[in-house]
Amino acid sequence: MRPPSPSEEILAVAFGAAKEASHLDLTWVAERCPTQQQRQWVGQWPGEHYRLLSGLVRALRPSLVVEVGTFTGSGSLALVDGTRANDNGQKSLPTTSFPGGHPRDPSEGGGLRLRRARTAHRDLGQDAYFSDQRTTLLSAELIFVDGPKDGRFEPIFFSRLFDLLSGSRHVVAADDIHFLNMVQTWNGLKVDKLDITSLGHWSGTGSCSQVDAAIEELRLRLGSDGFSSQAFAPIPKNVR
Predict the structure, then answer these.
(1) Domains (ranges, CATH) in the chain?
(2) Is the pLDDT of residue 198 over 90?
(3) pLDDT tens digits, residue range 120-167?
(4) C-alpha span between 162 and 191 (Å, rounded)
(5) What is the band of 196 on the pLDDT scale with cuts at 50, 70, 90?
(6) In what order do the strands lie in the sheet with 65-68?
(7) DSSP code string of 20-65
């Protein structure tokens, strides 16, 4: 059976984020990375997702972003970077880290990061903590999931997350969807989704959305900026 075509809305998200990512500069994020290799990763696009993350924030202009899972905090700062361009009163950017990693608080070092980022080192795979964070998750227009990929957390978390978000307005981005222990989880998501790996991380980047007035505004804005409306048309059913 042929999978359903992605919606105009999720295509608009991808086009908008890529357009923003194509011209932004994350030098200030790279300068805060502990190793030369990580500094190179931050600047590489496509192939790495940091510029795409900032592009998502710039395109969607969310008031609240949640990142689920972090390592050294570079992804967190890339998300914060998006708020620098869209300085329209965004709230803090909560970051939830998971046991077994080596999380580093992205608010270290002061400046913009102290004002815009908040880190919580807890496991959203636990029932009680997920329940505690329901309000935060429901308030976030953009949720970036980069968890442990241990074969346990993601199936549980995505199931709970999309049950929680059902009928509401959100964009969810997922990292490493081509990892062997993530393929089944990603393929099993019965939501409006799009594999945007060519615009993001070599190991797989996926985007899911609920229809949202803000996404419709983005689609119209992109159309006025040079993307024809045809770019957002669903793939015809008779195309094989």
Answers:
(1) 8-225 (3.40.50.150)
(2) yes
(3) 667 888 888 899 889 989 988 899 999 888 888 999 999 999 999 887
(4) 8
(5) very high
(6) 117-120, 93-96, 65-68, 142-145, 171-175, 205-209, 192-195
(7) HHTT---HHHHTT-SSHHHHHHHH-TTBSSHHHHHHHHHHH--S-E
pTM of the model: 0.77
Q: What is the largest CA-CA distance in the chain?
A: 55
Q: Letter for the amino acid at 164?
A: L
Q: Give kind and range of the element (H or E) at residue 175.
A: strand 171-175
Residues making up the chain, counted from first to last:
240
Q: Which residue has 């993601």 as its token pair?
A: 154
Is pLDDT at 70 greater than 90 in this prediction? no
Give the relative orientation of helices 36-43 and 50-60 as an angle to the nearest 10 degrees: 40
Question: H/E element holding 208?
Answer: strand 205-209
Residue, of 216 and 15, whose pLDDT is higher? 15
